[in-house]
Amino acid sequence: MTSSINPDRLSPALRTEALEQLLTERGLVDPAVMDKFISTYENDVGPLNGAKVVAKAWTDPEYRARLLAEGTGAIKELGFAGPQGEHIVVLENTAALHNVVTCTLCSCYPWPVLGLPPSWYKDPVYRARIVREPRTVLAEMGLELVADVEVKVWDSSSEVRYLVLPLRPAGTEGASEEELTALVTRDMMVGVAR
Amino acid sequence: MSTPLLGIDGPAAPPRDNGELVFAEPWESRAFGLAVTLHAAGAFTWDDFRDHLVARIADWERSHPDGECYSYYRCWLQALESVVADRGLVGAGEVAVRAGELAERPAGHDHADGADHGHGH
Question: What pTM was estimated for this model as a whole?
C-alpha cells in the first residue's frame, strides 16, 4: 500500500496552492495578471466608488435620471466598470420606500461600485432571513423602519446586480459633492442602513 | 501582542472602507484571483462558475459536519475545482495528489505562499 493521504489533511490552503501550481504550469494562469486582480480588489475597488455615484446623483438631477434609467452606463461615466458590473440596476429609496439587496443563492454583488461583499452579506442566515423577515433583520442590524415605509427585498441574479440610491440626508443642502461622498456608506448602498 | 503589519492609513492600509478585510486568509485571495483570472482569460463564463458556486453553497447548507462554520471561500474553492475539472483543465485527482505532495514538505520550508505558519513574534 502506498502512503495514502487523508483528504481531511488537505486544507483549502494546500488545495489552492496545488491548483495554482497546476494551472500556472499549464500556462492557464499568469501569476502576474492574477496578482494584479487580487491587489485591485483588495486595495482599489471598494464602496468609495459607489459613494461617488450616489453623491453625484444627489447633486446632478440629469445624472440621477440617467442612473435610474440605465445604471450600468451612468456608472461607467465615472469610470467604474468590470466583472460583476455588466448589468447594474439602481434602486431609488424614497420617503415611502426602502430597498434592500441580497443574493439568496450565493453572493452576487456589484463589485465595480462596492468592491467585494462583507461577510454578513455572504452568510446563509442573512441570505435566508432578509427575504422572510426583512424588518426584523434590518432592526437587528440597527435600522428601525416605521410601519408606513414599505420594504422591498431584491434578490440578485446571474444577470442583475443592484445598487441602492439612498435618500440624501436632511440638512445637507449646502454640502458639496465631495462632502456628500463622505456621508455615503456601504451599508446604505446595500440597504441595511438608510 | 505584536504590532499590526499594516498601518491604518497610508498606501498599504487594508480597505477599511469596507469595514473589514476583504480576505480572512491568504489562500482565499489566491482562490479568488484564480477564478477571476481564468474567467478573464476565457476559460469559463461567470454564469458557469456561479452555477457551480450556487451548487456548492446549497450542498453545504443541506448538510455539513456538526459544528463546522460556514466558509464562503471554501465553497468558492470547491466550485473552482469542479469548473476546471469540467472544462478538462485540471482533474480533481490531480489537485489532491499535488496538495498531498505539498503537505509532505518538511516544516520550515521557505515557500510561504498560502501556508499556515504558526510562528509569531
Answer: 0.85
d(CA B72, CA A108): 12
| Cα distances (Å, whole numbers) of residue A5 to A1, A9, A23, B98, B99 | 12, 7, 22, 11, 9
Q: In chain B, which residues have their Cβ closer than 8 Å to the Cβ of A50?
A: none
Q: Express each pLDDT in A23-73 by its tens digit.
A: 999 999 999 999 999 999 988 888 999 999 999 999 999 999 999 999 999
Q: How far apart are CA A20 and CA B28, in angstroms?
A: 12
The three cell numbers of residue A172 are 445637507
B32–A43 CB contact, under 8 Å: no
Q: Calculate the alpha carbon distances from A103 to A61, A81, A120, A157, B108 in Å.
A: 30, 20, 12, 7, 42
Please state the separation of Cα A99 from the chain's center in Å: 14
Closest alpha carbon to A17 in B77, B87, B84: B77
Q: B6 — contact with chain A (CB < 8 Å)?
A: no
Side-chain half-sphere exposure of B74, counting CA atoms within 13 A: 14
Whether B18 has its CB under 8 Å from any CB of chain A: the answer is yes
Listing DSSP states for A9-54 in one string gives GS-HHHHHHHHHHHHHHTTS--HHHHHHHHHIIIII-SHHHHHHHH
**Cell numbers linked to A145:** 423602519
**Contact (Cβ atoms closer than 8 angstroms) between residue B34 and residue A34:** yes
Mark yes or no for CB contact A46/B17 under 8 Å: yes
CATH class of A46-190: alpha beta
ipTM field: 0.87
- Give the whole-angstrom CA distance, residue B25 versus residue B92: 23
CA-nearest residue of chain A to B23?
A42
What is the C-alpha separation between A137 and A176, in angstroms, rounded?
A: 33
Gap between the Cα atoms of A29 and A22, Å rounded: 9
**Grid cell locating A88:** 447594474
